[in-house]
Amino acid sequence: MPTVRVYLLTYRRNHLLPRALASLRAQTHTDWVCELHNDDPGDTFPATLVAETADARVRCVRHETNLGPNRTFNLVFQPCGERYVCLLEDDNWWEPVFLQKLVALLETNPGVDVAWANMQIWQENPDRSWTRTGRTIWPAADFAGPSLFSWPHPRHLDSLVHSNGSALIRNRHLADLVVPPTTPFLAMEPIRERGMHFPLLFLPEPLVNFAWTQSTHREASSLLAAQMKALLTASYLRHARLDMEGWRRLADRARQSPANELAGLLIAAQLVSLARPLARHIRPAEWPRIVGSWIRHFPTNRRLLRARREHRAIFEYLDLHTAQRFAEAVA
After folding, report:
1. What are the structural domains, with CATH classification, of the chain?
2. How far apart are CA 14 and CA 27, in angstroms?
3. Please, what's the b/e burial string for 231-266 (b: 16 or more CB within 10 A of its CB; e: otherwise)?
4. pLDDT at position 31, please?
């Protein structure tokens, strides 16, 4: 039985797919098997590419109908026989030692379910050439070596710490990572991270190349993004059991953010009936701005206050797993 099952997911990116597949086949850790999932039933290119590659470790799976990104990504977390699973997106590519180093990390840290590597960022140009930005997802200089991330991290209020496309996941608790079918692509990663058992293990070495492409399949709805952020925040607040000092720090963080997010934080708190302890730390001079924001953006704010009802399955997933993460942290 191979050590790693790799899921290479693709949808109409035939100019990028060969690079991703080549990076997999160049891995110094060779004990893997790959399912290349093609989500465009009418596209024959991925199957042709796999046939021409003639690598017995790679199997092409053409979906009979277009599943969409969420249901396709959920396939990564189905039962399998390999010890580890990982995801390779068609627009990204790995450095040759990616699998070798992450497998070694998890082998020596049996209590950790998820390890992920830093990513270097590339920008696609209109002519389909690529520019290396010189930036990484996490500043590598901030870490002396592999680092554990425990729950909760400050980012967990409404975001995430790991990178979906640079993670190796132990074949344990995979079912927890299957997010609701209605989860929008733009929020899959932070929502799925709520299902992960902590700590997570980070390798600051940039072993994955992350592509900012000219086109994306992510939703462009600012309202949908705001609703998902509100649900992430609300579920966090519901189970964090903040004391007065915790609420004060949270209010300070919100007002010091570039866009001053006090108004949004107040709405998220209202979703779980916790607006009152937050309101105690809002200064009198800040209320006119908050009320003015509510009036100016009334239709949006009304939809935000209905986010739990409109996205019931997503909130239930977040509520369940956020409660588990805080319970584990206490234990």
Report:
1. 4-212 (3.90.550.10), 222-330 (no CATH)
2. 21
3. bbbbbbbbbbebeeeebeebbeebbeeeeebbbbbb
4. 98
How far does Cα 113 stand from its chain's mean position? Answer: 15
The whole-angstrom separation of Cα 153 and Cα 72 is 28
Count, residues in the chain: 331
Q: Is the pTM of this model over 0.85?
A: yes
Using CA atoms, how far residue 278 sits from 89, 151, 249, 265, in Å, is: 40, 22, 10, 9
pLDDT 10s digits, 216-255: 666 568 999 999 999 999 999 999 999 999 999 999 999 9
Give 24-79 pLDDT, tens digit per residue: 999 999 999 999 999 999 999 999 999 999 999 999 999 999 999 999 999 999 99
Closest-CA residue to 223 (of 327, 316, 139, 305): 305
For the residues 302-320, what does the mean pLDDT come to? 97
